[in-house]
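Hi there,

I know you've been waiting on this one. I reran it after we fixed the sequence typo, so this is the corrected version. Both the input and the resulting structure follow.
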Amino acid sequence: MCNAAEKLEVEQAFGMFNDPGADFESQRMMIKMYNQRQSAVKSGINTDWISKPLRLGVGNKHSLSVELGDKALQAIVDLSYQNIKGVMKGSDRTNINLPVVQASEFSVQKPVDYHFQRSARLQVRDFR
C-alpha cells in the first residue's frame, strides 16, 4: 500500500501523465493534472485507505440459455444470475435477468425482459 507521494510517483513512472502520442492540448492537461496532484501531496493530503470501509469488489455471474422451437418459430430464453460485491463494505447487489425473445423465419420480436435487482440502500454516513 502506497502513501500519496509514492502513489503519484508510481503513476508517473507508468506514464499516466505523459503520452508521447498525445496532441499538445492533451499533454498540457496531463501535466496540469500531475501538478495539481503534486501540490495536494505537498500540502499534506494523504488518505489512509486501510482505515476506510473498502474491500476488493469481486462477484460472480452464471448464465443459462435455452432455444426452443423449430425453423418456423423459435423462442430463446436466457437466465442470468449475478452476485456483485461492491467496493464499499455492505454494498452488495444481486441481479437476476430473464429475457425472452421470440423469433420466426421472417422476423425477430422485441424481447420481453424481466429484471430483478436487490441491493442495500446505504448512506455515506454509514461509512464514517
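Quick highlight: The radius of gyration is 24 Å.

Best,
R. S.
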